[in-house]
Amino acid sequence: EVFLPEEPRAAPPVDFLQELPSYQSALRRRAAAGGTQERRAAPQGSAGLRAAEARGPEQEGGELAARPAREYPLTIAEKRRLRDCQQADIKYVSGWEQWKRTSSKSLKKVLSEVRELFSYLELWRHDIHSIEGKFGTGIQSYFSFLRFLVLLNFIIFILMFSFVTLPSIISEYGIFNSSFAKISPKNIELHCTVYKPSGNMGLVYFYTYLKDLLSGTGFLEVTSLFYGYYTIDAAWLSILRYNLPLAYLLTTFAYLALSLLWIIKRSVEGFKQNLVHDEDQFQSYCNKVFAGWDFCITDPHAARLKHRSLQYELQTDLEEERLKQKIADRTMKEKLRIYSLRIFINIIVIAVLSGCFYSIYRATVFSQENSNVSIGHDDVSNTNFQANLLVQYLPSIVITLANFIAPQIFSFLIRFEDYSPAFEIRLTLMRCVFVRLANIGVLLFSLWSQISYCATDECKACGYNYELYPCWESEVGQEMYKLMIFDFIIILAGTLFVDFPRKLLVTHCSCKPVQWCGLREFGISDNVLEIIYGQTICWIGTFFSPLLPAIATIKYFFIFYIKKISLIHTCKPAARPIRASSSNFFFLVVLLIGLVLAFIPLGISIAHIPSSKACGPFRSFNTSWAVVPDTILGFPTGLQQVLHGIASEAFAVPFFMVICLIMFYFIALAGAHKRVVEQLREQLIMVRFDPLFCTPKV
0.90 exceeded by the pTM? Predict the structure, then answer.
């Protein structure tokens, strides 16, 4: 029995949604349901209809069967008939069209095989797939993020080594008939050019080498690891002149731009996924119940954790609904109480941050003053070695303690602010991000306050404290080097001396307090903040220590295996995991914040603070940036005028206006896309009730 449709009503208004493929498919299904008997009389009608549909692009756009048969939602038999029809129509196509189609298919096949080959060469491909299978996509996103940082640092190292370190080594040793030129600084006081690195001379104890290796002083200070090594003004390769100061500066801009573009590219991909998952509460419940399971999980323990995770997410959603209702029902007295409490807690947070910053400042000043004093002594006893090493690492120790203590205080205080669970996590994470990245800024500010302090006319003539910091760029590079090394030591020590003993106690001791503590959770956010903190150090320190990205690459390479072993053997997955799509986007946003904050100290160092006159490629210039206008003066007059015009206000103001217009256009486009998504969601909700989309019952 066939139920005829109701009497035709007024046609609904035509809009762009009716031109979507989903709407056209609904119309075809309705037409197909209405013409069942005709298809029974003509069994080949289905294939003929599809074949005509496949020939549509040829008639409209001039291409035959733009889509292959496998892309159509048909049965195997219908796809075979469609393919036969497509092949039968080839004789009506010109030779040029046939060659183009064959070439396109061959190219797609070659590209597919190349992509498959590169997927097998991908770093840690099997390990990451194994982690994803045992612990889900949330933890897998952390290790994928770690792999991204390894590749990024390796490419930065290739840039710095190829354009800065390698030309210096080639010219210094005369390889390929090369030579170098060292231009003496002009119009500079002689006392500003005195630099005697604290290299080891004579009989040297073993622990002195160990101290130098950990602190970047001694024999390491005069190597290509630090800024002071690069004293060449120009390298000559046959008749070609290589401007090393300009190459040094441009390579710095290149690795910062590369990092920015790469992070933005990956962030855009994560933002698209995050936008798709930004559903309303009703759809959130449906997605968690019907599509919340992670089918990559094969480990039974991980499956139980996923069950508890889904249960926790549903409880969290219900709790947020309850809190929303509670917030809506608050009286004015309750609002005043909670706002006053939040203001008081934020004052405590500011006080904690101020205490951390002041402690780092005092530790840095004390370390710099006493380290410079101890360098001049010849006492190499073991006690003096330990004390000197402790003094040099004092800022790193204080920063590590601040990074550990402050988040614990923030996690305790957030409970009294009466926020929703999701907002509590985000606010705590942002506070932790701020304290980690701001600590690096305070360290650099403390160093620069010491570098810029001048009390005599001789010091003012140099522009910096030449007595304590004859090569201040190398000093800053050594501090970044020590932060990098100490951060790796803390991560390694935490796994060896905290996680493994805790695992043994929980496994072999049945005491209730030990079992109550249990294994440490593998917190994704905390681990990500650790490596972002280290990456920010690398970005800042690469200008002062060109080979620091190589150390960061090796560091993250070992951290991958340390964290993998820790996850499998000594830790348990977090009971409150975060979704992989949102976590990837969050990781990249925090990494982007770290990169933007790295621009600030580097910009100040390059454009504002006078460069050292006793070392480095910029000793002949007042600042590092001064090499750019000096290079432009050597260009032809016409090119100079073009560059000066680009740098003038007459070009900058219209360019800024055009950029603003483009930005407003994309904002409007994003708003339009958002409205489209909302309308599509409304149609998904109304699809059961709208007869326009309903198929007649048979």
Answer: no
